[in-house]
Amino acid sequence: MTDLQALLDATPDGGTCVIPAGDHAVPEGTCLHVPYGVAAIDATGATIRVVGADGQRSTVRPTVPLFDCGQRPNGSTFTFRGGHLIGPDTYGWDVLDDVGVSAIQWSFYKTWDSVMTVDGVTVEGGYAYAVMRSGGGDLTITGSHLSGWVGAVACFEGHGGHGTFTASDCLFPAPHSTLSMPISPPHRRRSRSPATTAPHQTPRRSPQPRAGLWWGVEGGHMFYTVDTTTRLLLAGPTVQFPDGTILTENTKDDFTFPVQGWEWHPSDEAAYEAMAPEMLPVLAQQVADQQATIDALLDALGGSDG
Length: 306
Prior knowledge:
Shape: globular
Structural class: alpha/beta
Number of strands: 22
């Protein structure tokens, strides 16, 4: 088995660490520290899997990033090219479970004049984000398919600096982002008060995630796909693919489904029964437990809104 940390450590300053093509298993709890001097990682053709003690895909929530680019100083440049990163399997995780680390992470404040590029990378599994860049600077993502437990990408700067985020030819099917939300079982979904969120926020702690590419869109007559990591349904009234294909209510009859993994169904229930029937009892129990918590909180506050 290739020692990935040794490869990174042996890369000269300003050089590119080339991860050999093929399968690489890393034990759960592994954090690959990218030395400050490494200018790029090229993982083209490589699959990097997080595994448990039995050698099978991990199911444990991660507590450290997979690739930690560290506290690179302002003015640094870093590129991650190619590769398929497979994090822990999130099947059966509660939708309120919190994860705070990402698959590819560069976090250092006031690095406003730095540049990070991610190109041709696929990330799936239970990291909070596929890519996290905090501290400002320019982040460019191209030709990538990124998924995370919370969202596909986190890019922010909180010290009054500046930064840009550019993405092209990408898919971001994040299970818990405002771009594509998981759907709770249709017959168990109810809310005592409407949830709201700003467009840039991720409603991680909403007790009952709602369907839709936009927060608050509910009901059926939408397009659905199954997230292969969580087995949750993702849904939206409009789907646009990098090749320019656009699915809408008015054009759905022009297509033979599935289209790139997406189907049209008249209701959430029909979509679940057709695409992920095994998830109905799992999610129903989760929603019931969460609703019981909400009811108890409302009762403790002295009443409810019905």
